[in-house]
Design a protein that fits this description.
By secondary structure, the protein is an alpha+beta fold. Helix content is about 30%, strand content about 25%. It is built from seven helices and ten strands. Strands 1, 2, 3, 6, 7, 8, 9 and 10 form an eight-stranded mixed β-sheet that branches. It is globular, with a radius of gyration of 21 Å. It binds zinc ion. The site of zinc ion has 7 residues, from helix 4.
């Protein structure tokens, strides 16, 4: 059954506003032609959302799923690191985590499912590759099958003003923030090895993140108090073919009957099988 699942899977991500620190990479130097203005609404600027924030967000969701199933997850930090807040690290270990790599018995052991996916101990790569999302404001040039999205880059200016009455709101400093508005597209993930429990964990984690999209802990990127990073997300049916994936984003077209059949097969046949593989894997972990 798992052989029917391609190593490439896609997560649909939709958000009104995404602010990921200062880490959006833009191609405005191409678009500007020497006269770029930050606040010109005509800017046709594309760019890249790096995978770091996306990856941390997904991992957090996956850890939660493992914990809700009664297991513990690999701590993301090295056990021998000099944690500035030792108490916090130890508290994590009491709250659903084990020391990173503690789940490995010997060198060819795969460890817990989180370790297996994310790796990172003794130079081991994780088995899920998280790609950056390339975005463009020009919808017709977005290739969803390559993990791209429609998105509109804006530079947001925030004026921090004096609170003192006599100062008449005199500006104290100006903060600039990179943001992507109205993002809608695909996040492309590739499994280096496709295992049923991986697919189940991904599907459950994406569901969890969607349900908890307004929780402080489960928003994507920074600036959480400003509503940036509230994300609608769902796993695109892994049984879909490329032309079906494209169809999802075509507002003029609905789903085909073939897609509806695949949805039913995914819900009733594949997903339950993969879920039991995940349950088994979490149960047998240390
Ligand atoms: Zn582990």
């Amino acid at each position: 059954m798992i052989e029917d699942i391609d190593r490439d899977v896609f997560v649909r991500i939709q958000t009104d506003l995404l602010v990921v620190g200062d880490s959006i990479i833009t191609d405005r130097h191409h678009a500007s032609n020497g006269n770029y203005e930050d606040n010109d609404p005509q800017n046709q600027i594309g760019g890249i959302i790096p995978a770091f924030s996306l990856s941390g967000w997904l991992r957090h969701g996956m850890e939660k799923v493992v914990q809700e199933r009664g297991g513990t997850a690999c701590h993301p930090g090295e056990p021998n690191a000099n944690f500035r807040k030792d108490g916090v690290y130890n508290r994590d270990l009491d709250a659903g985590y084990h020391e990173k790599g503690a789940c490995l018995d010997d060198d060819d052991d795969d460890g817990c499912v989180i370790f297996d996916l994310f790796g990172g101990f003794g130079n081991r790569p994780g088995k899920v590759m998280r790609r950056p999302i390339q975005f463009s404001p020009v919808r017709s040039s977005v290739d969803y099958t390559r993990g791209q999205a429609e998105g509109h880059y804006r530079r947001i200016n925030r004026n921090v003003v004096s609170r003192n009455d006599q100062d008449n709101r005199e500006p104290l400093r100006n903060a600039e923030l990179d943001a992507v508005g109205n993002l809608d597209g695909c996040w492309h993930l590739s499994f280096r090895e496709t295992k049923p429990e991986f697919v189940a964990l991904l599907a459950e984690a994406i569901d969890f993140l969607d349900e908890h999209q307004t929780d402080f802990m489960h928003q994507l990127g920074g600036a959480r108090n400003f509503g940036g990073g509230i994300v609608d997300c769902h796993l695109v049916n892994p049984l879909y073919e490329e032309h079906e994936l494209r169809r999802i984003f075509d507002r003029g077209k609905g789903n085909t009957t073939k897609m509806a059949e695949k949805d039913e097969r995914w819900e009733n046949e594949y997903f339950p099988k993969f879920e039991s593989a995940l349950a088994e894997r979490v149960e047998e972990a240390p």
